[in-house]
Specification:
The chain is an alpha/beta fold and 219 residues long. It has nine helices and 13 strands. The strands form three sheets. Strands 3-2-1-4-9-6-10 form a seven-stranded mixed sheet, with helices on both faces. The chain has a three-stranded antiparallel sheet with strand order 5-11-12. A three-stranded antiparallel sheet has the order 8-7-13.
Length: 219
Amino acid sequence: MDSVCYLITGKLTLELVARLQVSFQHVPNKVISVWVDEDLRFLDYLHQHGFQIVMNFPPQVKSSANLQAACIVNGLHKIIGMGFEKCIRVRTDMFFENIEHATNVIAGQIREKLVCLSGMSSESPKLWYYLDLLIAGRCETMLKFFSPLMKKDESRCAEMFWLETYLGRKCTTKEDVLEVFEFCGQHLYGQPVLCHWIDKGWELFQHYIRPGNYFIWYA
């Protein structure tokens, strides 16, 4: 776990700050990347509990992809400056039980490709993409993936914009997704580890990404 750094992005509330402190209390390397208008009391509390803080100005084009990418990219630069080569990026509303075990499983998957929980698909229209709640990888690879900025007239969702920009072509098959991503969800399912996604009230590792869920795929 000492060889990888967590990057946590998203909005903060009093509840989320308290949960983050508990969830990450045994994680030595953690950076939280937030907006400049975030409540300084929250940031002071997290800093006192070992979180490195990165504060960001919003991008000129405030699309979903650009807003997420601003915090991710600046957080990655911070992590690289701290001397880390590998990163696990999660949201501020995701909380782990037995995070040490989860970290070992996820970090063990990091090689040349990026790592996410699973593939996803939709039927109307038919799309092949990926679950972006957790993305891990080598910092330089993650920078290449998240650095492109979406233009004002862009109509693609954030996930497809990043994937197709990274590939340099349209994504139309499972194989396109697998060219970029390894999946770790199948290795977390059935393990003694939980991840609660507070925004939806779902548990991710044992329920949401379970094999057999109709829109989740691994191969």
